[in-house]
Amino acid sequence: MVVMYADFSCPRCALAWERLSAAPVRMVLRHLALRAKHPRALALAHAVEAAGLQGRFWELASALYADQGRIDDPHLWAHLEVMGVDLERWEADRRSEEVAARVSRDVRDALRGGATATPTLFAGTEMLAGPPDADWLAELTR
Fold first, then answer.
1. Helices (DSSP H) in the chain: which residue ranges?
2. Domain interval for residue 114
3. Cα separation of 43 and 114, whole Å?
4. pLDDT (tens digit, 9 = 90+) per residue, 3-40?
5. Helix (H) or strand (E) holding 121
6. Can you give the pTM of this predicted structure?
7. In sequence order, what DSSP letters do the residues of 75-106 get, joined into one string?
8. CATH code of the domain covering residue 114
9. Residues of the chain with pLDDT under 70
């Protein structure tokens, strides 16, 4: 299992997502929304968590990573409409304390674990900063 701390506006996270998605490993995605480098990171983390409350977490995450050039609100809403997300419910959920607490908890856990940049991957006790390469993935699947 690989735990990936990432944000949805990070091109290096998109590359890590692509590589991990193609590998035969179980992935857990957690938020490391660092607004200083990526101003939309927090808003996108909330958006994905809110979509997750309607069973669309992984679908929206995939859509955002696949289309890094279009992560603004109009494109985000277009993705949600295609997915059949109830937009009124999603809008309320993304502004909720529940979603904010979930994202904050992930960020706090990432920083406590030593993650300071996105993406940061954890496999057991091993930490990798940056996208995984083929050798790292091969070791993981042995």
1. 11-22, 41-52, 57-66, 73-83, 87-94, 97-112, 134-140
2. 2-140
3. 23
4. 999 999 999 999 999 999 999 999 999 999 987 677 89
5. strand 120-123
6. 0.93
7. HHHHHHHHHT--HHHHHHHHTSHHHHHHHHHH
8. 3.40.30.10
9. 36
Query: Would you state the structure tokens that stand for residue 15, as one six-digit string?
Result: 């590359």
Domain count, the chain: 1
CA distance 76 to 85: 11
CA angle 59, 100, 16 (to 5 degrees): 40
CB 21 within 8 A of CB 132: no
* Beta bridge partner(s), residue 23: none
Q: Quote the CA–CA distance of 11 and 14 in Å, as a whole number.
A: 5
Amino acid residing at 41: A
Q: Quick one: residue 124, left, alpha or beta (phi over 0 = left, psi -120 to 50 = alpha)?
A: left
Check: CB of residue 87 under 8 Å from CB of residue 80.
yes
Query: 28 and 110 in contact (C-beta within 8 Å)?
Result: no
Please give the structure tokens belonging to residue 34. Answer: 């660092």
Centre a 10 Å sphere on the Cβ of residue 75 and count the other Cβ atoms it contains: 14
DSSP helix/strand/coil, 53: coil
